[in-house]
Design a protein that fits this description.
- The chain folds into 2 domains: about 130 residues, Rossmann fold; about 110 residues, HAD superfamily/HAD-like (Rossmann fold), CATH 3.40.50.1000.
- About 35% of the residues lie in helices and about 20% in strands.
- The protein is built from 10 helices and 15 strands.
- The protein is globular and about 60 Å long.
- The two termini are about 30 Å apart.
- The C terminus is likely disordered.
């Protein structure tokens, strides 16, 4: 029997936008699906911004979202630390990671202060002294938490180094692996998203542009996946990673046009762009 999806778990970078450029065909399809009752959950490995910042940006493109339907690796890492009894955290990261840590009740500390946990995310303002102090804490027994392990992230004209590059530095100097990588493809962030939205794994379709994170997340957790060719990965990358997406499409709109029967709601034949208003 063909599986019917009532929820899409959608990546942001490379699916909703690439750098500052919105990806209009993907946005158009999500507006249509949400208007028909399909739940749209946004799941990002980007830990530089807060969920509230992403909500505001999504609203700019006419996409409705709230704190339950937007989950990023900053929030996932902070929730993991909170649920495991952590309090004082040293953060290698940007404002979004600090904000989400504070929001769940953690205390980010400055260099020179002891911390039980070191949380590492993307940090475009990182300094050698910050990395050196994080390394000392980890070697001294602090829990090593990676928000995500993306070695690169997509920008308008290519790819830039990501949080995974910083995690690699700290692995090398401390001799320790992260206790957890909170973001994709770790099951932790998926379980958090499903729990917050009351969705079962067999009801969801993961949509993303990266085989090593989005598609791997589905493969490791028995959730169907759609690889869209609007971001980082290309079809020729499938063999390199050894992970097959359930579906491949140029974009979400093209996939929707050809696969309306896969969704748990009725989508009329020959729908027009005017039906895509949120």
């Amino acid at each position: 029997m063909t599986r019917k999806y009532r929820a899409l778990i959608v990546d942001l970078d490379g699916v909703i936008w690439r750098g500052s450029k919105p990806l209009r065909d993907n946005i158009k399809a999500l507006k249509l699906l949400r208007g028909k009752g399909v739940r749209i959950i946004y799941l990002s490995n980007n830990a530089t911004r807060s969920r509230q910042e992403y909500i505001i940006r999504l609203q700019k493109y006419g996409l409705k979202a709230d704190l339950n339907t937007v989950i990023n690796s900053a929030y996932a890492a902070a929730e993991y630390v909170k649920e495991h009894g952590g309090y004082k955290v040293f953060i290698v990261g940007e404002a979004g990671l600090f904000y989400e840590a504070s929001l769940v009740g953690l205390l980010p500390v400055a260099m020179g202060t002891e911390a039980e946990y070191v949380i590492v995310g993307m940090d475009r303002f990182v300094t050698y002294s910050k990395l050196a102090y994080a390394c000392r804490l980890i070697k001294g027994g602090a829990h090593f938490i990676a928000a995500n392990y993306d070695l690169t992230y997509p920008v308008e004209d290519g790819e830039d180094p990501g949080a995974g590059s910083i995690v690699e530095f700290l692995k090398g100097c401390s001799g320790r692996e992260p206790e957890i990588i909170a973001g994709k493809p770790n099951p932790w962030i998926l379980d958090l998203a499903l729990r917050l939205n009351g969705v079962r794994r067999d009801e969801a379709l993961i949509v993303g542009d990266r085989i090593d994170t989005d598609i791997m997340l589905g493969a490791l957790n028995n959730v169907d996946t759609l690889l869209v060719l609007t971001g980082v990965s290309k079809p020729e990358d499938i063999e390199r990673y050894g992970v097959n997406p359930t579906y491949i499409a140029k974009n979400i709109y093209e996939f929707l046009v050809e696969n309306k029967e896969l969704f748990s709601v009725y989508i009329a034949e020959g729908f027009e762009d005017s039906n895509c208003r949120s």
